[in-house]
Amino acid sequence: MKLERKNNNLLKRWIRFFAGLIILVLMVVFFGSGYTPPGAFGEVLRHNQTCSIDASPLFYSEVENMAVLEEGVRELIEIKKSLKEQ
Amino acid sequence: MERGIRSLWKSEDWWAVWIGFIIIFGSIAKIIPKIPKVGKWTGDPLKAFMVIKDDVVAGNIFIPLLFLMIFLAILTAIGIAFMRTEKIGRYMAGFVGVFVIAVISYWIANQVNIKYWGLSYALWALLVGLLISNTIGTPGWLKAGAKTELFIKIGLVLLGAEILFKKILSLGPPGLMVAWIVTPVVVIFMYRFGTSLLKMKNKELVIIIACATSVCGVSAAIAAAAACCAKKEDLTLAVGMTLIFTVLMMFFMPLGIKFIGMNDVLGAAWMGGTIDSTGAVVAAGSMLGPTAEKVAAVVKMIQNVLIGLLAFVIAVYWVTVVNREQCETEGRPNAMEIWYRFPKFVIGFLAASLLFSFVMVPAMQGNFNLVESTYINSVTKVLRGWFFCLAFVAIGLESNFKDLASRMEGGKPLSLYVIGQSFNLVLTLFIAFLAFMVFFPDAI
């Protein structure tokens, strides 16, 4: 009786695990499919796809083109300064 | 708690500092070679493990990943052997399991379309860990390798190397105004609001949510959690919320800004100061144009630099005020007691930042890019990512939904996030307007 209950519990756990795994796989398939929501909601995603923008970095140093962006700001400041002097 | 000289080789905090600095000096001395990382892929999952040069497969990273796993297992096992917190054989076996899950998490996160959504490795590592712990249960041998605090602390010491103080001047006074005036105000507001008005008992959760909302999402949450010795479930909850709201803000803020016809630079500064993670800021900024993309990213970068200072202040506040309130019977702690309780890894975190900001950068004639490309990008940054990923796997493996639900306190953390973020949005817009439109209109 005890062994049967233990086996049932174990079976339930594994069923829960596989159900969770299926949900996780479905999430990966959905987000990885390249689907974008229609209308305004998907506009940023479509822009990211078109311009190959990685939106996942957590910290500034993880952004691949951070040095280029920083340099861009420096250039913008310089341009403004020179315009002001003129 | 280990005290006195023994703590130098018996405490986890000090081991995080030693291991972090072994890696940092190994990187400076060029002893540690380039660290492998899982690559991007679109349709072919195996591409993530291939080395591609000039569009041709030049090899794979399976062997380098194996060496990395062995290197990290040995490095951390030395600390564990001294601390005697686990049997080494058991730890090594568990570490292999945790590392494999970390590789799977990186592999999922590096799918190109998933990257466009802004779903980082932290989310996948947490989900895979939570899936195991809440269904079949985390086996004992795997738990032995899940050393969350140690991984987080080593990761934070390494993160210190990426925080270069002089970067705060990149955008001049207006950038500083948006990033450095608003952020502390929002942190204090949210902390007071959460503890006094919402009457949240879990002060650690309040400060983690406050830092995640006002500084830089997940990274700030990790730093704050470690500085105040929060529970893993607090970090899981805060990270979960910040990841969801970051995606929503990335979707809707640029659309709103475009809709009302706000000035691009003002909109960029607003998004840079409010959207939690840098990747989402860059994506949202890019929607407004190239100038906005640059301004938004740099504002966020300036804000990111605050993370070290914030971790230090939180650590000091916790050992001097919060811990004292919690142990009223013990009386006021003296200076030695404060020092004993102080999370020492914060010292390593700040020391790494100071070393790179004021020694390495000047040694390279002030060339940030050279320091980053020579020492940070190929070693410390990649290893920091691995340690954070391992930490999130470990958190997932040790968390359960019941504990998470019990921390919701009737939805108070969610209310705190929503109200705090709303305050952040209003204040950042106001200060950004003053900075970029009134005081320094010709800055950009």
Question: Would you kindly provide a written description of the structure presented here, covering whatever features stand out?
Answer:
- The complex is a heterodimer of chains A (86) and B (444).
- Chain A has 86 residues and is an all-alpha fold.
- Chain A has 3 helices and no strands.
- Chain B is an all-alpha fold and 444 residues long.
- Chain B is built from 20 helices and 2 strands.
- In chain B, strand 1 and strand 2 (56-60) form a beta hairpin.
- The longest helix of chain B is centred in the C-terminal third of the chain and has 37 residues, at 290-326.
- Chain B is globular, with a radius of gyration of 22 Å.
- Chain B starts with 6 loop residues before the first helix and ends in a 5-residue tail after the last helix.
- The mean pLDDT of chain B is 93.
- At the A-B interface, helix 1, helix 2 and helix 3 of A face helix 5, helix 6, helix 12, helix 14 and helix 15 of B.
Brief overview:
The complex is a heterodimer of chains A (86) and B (444). With 86 residues, chain A is mostly helical. Chain A is built from 3 helices and no strands.
Task: Summarize the helices and strands and which ones pair or pack.
The complex is a heterodimer of chains A (86) and B (444).
Chain A: H1 2-32, H2 43-51, H3 66-85
Chain B: H1 7-10, H2 12-28, E1 50-53, E2 56-60, H3 62-83, H4 88-109, H5 112-117, H6 121-133, H7 140-143, H8 148-160, H9 172-197, H10 203-216, H11 218-227, H12 232-260, H13 264-274, H14 278-288, H15 290-326, H16 335-341, H17 345-363, H18 368-398, H19 401-406, H20 412-439
Antiparallel strand pairs in B: 1-2
Helix pairs in contact in B: 2-3, 2-8, 2-17, 2-18, 3-4, 4-6, 4-18, 6-18, 8-17, 8-18, 9-10, 9-13, 9-15, 9-20, 10-11, 10-12, 10-15, 10-20, 11-12, 11-15, 12-14, 13-14, 13-15, 13-20, 14-15, 15-17
